[in-house]
Amino acid sequence: MINVAVSGFAGRMGSAVVDAVTAADDMQVTCGIDPHGSSKVFAVYETVEQAVHAGGFDVLVDFTQPSVVEGNLRVALAAGIDCVVGTTGLANDKLEELAALAPEGTCLFYAPNFTTGAVLMMQFAKSAAPFFPEAEVLEFHHCNKKDAPSGTAVRTAQIISEARDGRQSVAPGKETEIAGCEGARGALVEGVPVHSVRSMGYVASQEVVFGSMGQTLTIRHDSWDRTSYMPGVLLGIRSVGDRQGLIVGLENFME
Ligand code: NAD
Residues in the active site (predicted)? Predict the structure, then answer.
């Protein structure tokens, strides 16, 4: 049985993690950490320091806020607790610095996107890119999303650019935009146009459209609700016990 602490357990993602861990046969929630949470089922702490002091868990899952995640991880990693992190806002050099605080055998796992389908979409895009001269990314999110384009769209564009090996698109670009309609060809991310749609009705969707002579290939992924992240979170929780150091990206466990 894997004992799990959920940091940010009263939030949208944290509460979905509590439900998913509770429903799994091989793990249980032993405590939750959140200044705004309460529970009749497991112990609740306001800070990770208090939870680590009380002990009783092997893995800390963190879905909190960019402003607090670093402090949470500093405490947990120094105590040798494996961490599964979905909270955004930690740059790679910061993740490396945090992982270095942990004793040998401890794992810091960060996934910018926990949906298995989005990871596969990026892998399929990497395979397709060398065979299609044109590629554009269209991403669709709910209107509360603060950033555009999404991190997944940016990463997909980078992957396509790397797989193109220096080859350039021949499709008309931003220079053909009509005055007053700038942005019609999207944002250019490493030479790949990226278009961001924000609307009620979406959670998170993305299409990658490839074009070649006489053919197009469309790869599409849709997240319809937050449960779509949970298979990836559970995979992370099950995997960190056998790994150590910093691991970034769910694809590392999808083999
Ligand atoms: P939310 O605002 O609903 O929940 C955050 C929770 O953290 C709140 O309940 C808050 O009280 C709690 N919190 C604040 N300070 C805390 C602290 N010091 N210790 C413990 N808990 C604390 O946010 P959300 O929608 O659940 O998203 C959480 C994070 O996860 C965001 O950074 C979001 O971008 C990210 N996210 C990542 C993925 C992914 O696949 N990697 C997917 C969705 C969301």
Answer: 141 (proton donor/acceptor), 145 (proton donor)
